[in-house]
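Hello again, I could really use a second opinion on something today. I've been staring at a protein lately and its backbone has me curious. Can you walk me through what the tokens say about the fold? Take your time with it, there's no hurry, and the full record follows here:
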Amino acid sequence: MEVVGPEVSQIEGQIPTCFYSRSGCPRLVMVDSYTSGMFRLFLPLLASLSFVGAAVPSASRIDPIVIAHRGASAERPEHTLAAYDLAVSHGADFIEPDLVMTRDGVLVARHENEIGGTTDVASRLEFRDRRRTRVIDGQPVTGWFTEDFSLAELRTLRARERLPELRPQNTSYDGHFLVPTLAEVIELARRRSQETGRSIGIYPELKHPTYFRGVGLPMEETLVAELNRAGWRDRHAPVFVQSFEVGTLQRLNRLTKVRLVQLLDGDGRPFDRPDLTYRGMATAAGMTAIARYADGLGPAKELIIPRDPSGRTGKPTSLVRNAKAAGLLVHPWTFRPENIFLPAELRRGDDVRAHGNIAAEAKMFLELGVDGFFTDAPELGIAARDASRRP
């Protein structure tokens, strides 16, 4: 029996079966047409019964999705069209843009709204007076912010590698690429879907939505309008929208039918819900509540397989099993190839920048039944998924 903290009861909803979740059992709608048809046939009967704690049928026939975290960001500066395009070439199923807003209300792809470390803005004399300190999610941040630039101004900047000490090879691309808009990311996904014959989806994250709403730039309505223009309006669209904030996902749940994912950090709490904790939300009761407004979870890896004090992998938690019982998909983050990010036993050598055994790490999570995963190295992620199919 899990002991659930008082914060869990304050998440909307406490119905403990996937048949009453936001969109039914997400995994069930993904199985073959015969099973799906039989499920729809018997759904009225099933919904009339009390299936508290009922197990969710396995959908192991469906390949887990590989989500290119900020594009192929281990090989190109993150959140550039070049990084997203390379990720598609490497076989990624979804490309992930973090979204922030410009002064004139355009969604653009950057890791944060502070862009001093991901563009060349600091070297632009014409923008030196834009440097300032803002309070973002309760924390003072100094630098240059997208909301102080029009799109036209932002387009004069060029992207830079965010982790030059760790990925020095990527710095050779500094100054080559623009900051892309969400519309451009959507266009790339649709064009590459036609070229490859595969469905390439997008997996945007709204960054600091409460902050942006507070400065007169509501993100949710802008995002939904952009998705609607692409014809992406329901759960069959090649879209997942993610956020760490609860209220943002609840608002999106009222505005659109595309699939939504609640992100969970290893510690802390959602900025817009200080009464909750991410670890409380990761309990069985917490996930039952999340299923009222979202279709999946994006948990930090340590919520599924923690590490011991020596940095080695520990015993898996019950998160994946509990999420499936609540009817939620599970897409953990982030799988990175460098030693510094890997469990101690999967590192190769002493150089923190050297690549370790990311495939073995991904395999551990795939064997637990995750439905997909975020990775900076989609080519390696695809190889790990393919290897997991073999007996």
Remarks:
- The domain at 20-389 is CATH 3.20.20.190 (TIM Barrel).
- The two ends are 35 Å apart (CA to CA).
- The longest helix spans residues 33-47.
